[in-house]
Design a protein that fits this description.
Length: 192
């Protein structure tokens, strides 16, 4: 059975851009053509006792192609075609209390691949993040937010790479206060 809280959203975007690079003498040396593709899926489902379950998926692929007007052998790594792809999955569970407060917990998984056309420069990334957020509306113009999360991101490279395998631990705690004076003016104080 569908409820008013159930939703499904699918979005696809594609964009192109072109940049020209010039040497210090002013002559054009190369042109970069970028293609960006993004796919997003968001869905939510109302559960028992007012809980709301949300799932999101994001895929992004950026490709860069270079056209050179001059000999670039003096720096063969600079103008190499490359691509970056990433996938994110997020699962969250939230509940609103008394129409004023909201409590949310989430888990996010991320993966990515950087392909520079050379095994020594390529890199893979995997990460996970666990967090929560509590928000409360004190009045029609005053709100408070507390957010906390902890995540680990791991980077993997091929043997002999320019980079080393490494892990990055991230811990975030933030407190925020919002006061709305009118539709055009508000004050936000954030620390963390």
């Amino acid at each position: 059975n569908l409820t008013a809280k159930d939703s499904l959203s699918l979005e696809y975007q594609e964009g192109w851009s072109k940049k020209s690079f010039f040497s210090s003498e002013g002559s054009q040396t190369s042109t970069q053509r970028k293609t960006e593709r993004v796919l997003r899926l968001d869905t939510s489902r109302g559960l028992f006792s007012g809980f709301l379950l949300k799932f999101g998926y994001n895929f992004q692929l950026n490709t860069y192609r270079y056209i050179s007007e001059e000999d670039t052998l003096f720096n063969p790594l600079y103008l190499r075609d490359n691509s970056l792809s990433s996938r994110d999955y997020i699962l969250s569970l939230s509940r609103t209390f008394f129409g004023r407060a909201n409590l949310q917990g989430f888990y996010k998984y991320m993966s990515g691949h950087e392909d520079y056309g050379l095994t020594e420069r390529n890199q893979d990334m995997n990460g996970g993040e666990l967090g929560g957020r509590f928000s409360v509306r004190f009045s029609g113009s005053d709100s408070g937010f507390i957010s906390a999360s902890m995540g680990v991101t791991s980077f993997y490279t091929a043997p002999g790479s320019f980079f080393n395998d490494r892990d990055v631990l991230t811990k975030i705690l933030s407190v925020e206060y919002l006061h709305i004076f009118n539709r055009s003016f508000s004050l936000k104080i954030k620390t963390g």
